[in-house]
Design a protein that fits this description.
The structure holds 2 protein chains of 2 kinds. Chain A is an all-alpha fold. Chain A has one domain: Helix Hairpins, CATH 1.10.287.3510. Helix content of chain A is 80%, strand content 0%. Chain A has 3 helices and no strands. Chain A is elongated. The mean pLDDT of chain A is 90. Chain B is an all-alpha fold. In chain B, 77% of the residues lie in helices and 0% in strands. Chain B has 7 helices and no strands. In chain B, helix 1 (3-24) runs antiparallel to helix 2 and helix 5 packs across helix 6 (131-139). The longest helix of chain B has 26 residues, at 52-77. In chain B, 25% of the residues are buried. Classes of the chains: A mainly alpha, B mainly alpha. Chains A and B meet through helix 1, helix 2 and helix 3 of A and helix 1, helix 2, helix 3, helix 4 and helix 5 of B.
Chain lengths: 98, 169
């Protein structure tokens, strides 16, 4: 019964995450928007697990573990960049610009 | 409209509203705190979708551990209130909005294909042996190898984070 509304909410949240990645320049906020997208996909998995079996919920568990690992490594990279360049604004991180 | 649907849309609306606030606040800390609100609302949606265990993990791991990590890094970098260049200018903003709207329309159009029809076996399995057992049994039998590989991945992440963040080894 809640499947269709869940998929709609999940699509909207994913879109908001993508919009956040596109409109922000702060590396940390962009990283948080990626987490928002992961959560939207998790919502899809849980909604479909209701009818298609418990495998979806186990996949969500693994997605959470991967997200935790990704957050730890990603924030360490942001810290290293900040130490090097004194900024996390992506506008100023244009080393590859020709 | 049934009561469950009303409660569902209350939490869903709160999740969408706080996600919107999360991506528009210039202050990084405010942004992170609105994301925490979103994560709590999504946890409530998980409970309504027969995933109580995932909901508890969502609060413990996401709202508890990962967001604290984010706030800790924000504090460490001493970012403070955001500057004007934190959000893209009008042109970039318009292009981003159009692109995101196009993606949203495409995702919502996917729903027109209709959800897959199958028997609701999860709620029945949960009633006979409890929801945690229904998740844990396949996790330690059918999905044992992915579960163990996840542990290995977390170990690699710990080592990687220490190597990256340490000034000199």
């Amino acid at each position: 019964m809640l499947l269709e509304p869940s998929l709609i909410v999940s699509a909207v949240l994913f879109t908001l995450g993508v919009a956040g990645v596109l409109i922000r320049r702060n590396a940390i906020v962009i990283f948080m928007c990626v987490e928002l997208m992961l959560n939207a996909v998790n919502l899809t998995f849980v909604a479909l697990a209701q009818t298609l079996g418990v495998g979806g919920q186990i996949f969500v568990l693994i997605v959470m573990a991967v997200a935790a690992a990704e957050a730890a490594v990603g924030l360490a990279i942001i810290l290293a960049i900040f130490r090097h360049r004194e900024t996390v604004n992506l506008q100023h991180l244009n080393l590859l610009k020709g | 409209m049934p009561a469950t649907l009303v409660v569902f849309w209350v939490f869903a609306g709160a999740a969408i509203a706080s996600a919107l606030l999360c991506i528009t606040r210039r202050n990084t800390v405010a942004s992170a705190l609105w994301l925490v609100v979103t994560l709590f609302d999504i946890a409530a949606l998980f409970v309504m979708l027969d995933a109580q265990f995932i909901a508890v993990l969502q609060i413990l791991v996401y709202a508890g551990a990962i967001m604290v990590l984010f706030l800790f890094v924000i504090m460490l970098l001493n970012l403070g209130p955001g500057t004007a260049s934190d959000v893209k200018g009008p042109v970039g903003f318009a292009i981003a909005t159009v692109l995101a709207a196009a993606l949203g329309i495409q995702l919502l159009a996917l729903l027109r294909a209709g959800p897959p029809a199958a028997a609701g076996d999860l709620a029945r399995a949960g009633q006979s042996e409890g929801m945690i057992a229904a998740v844990a049994r396949p996790l330690f039998t059918v999905y044992l190898v992915p579960f163990e590989i996840t542990g290995l991945l977390l170990l690699a992440a710990i080592v990687g984070a220490v190597v990256l963040a340490k000034r000199q080894l």
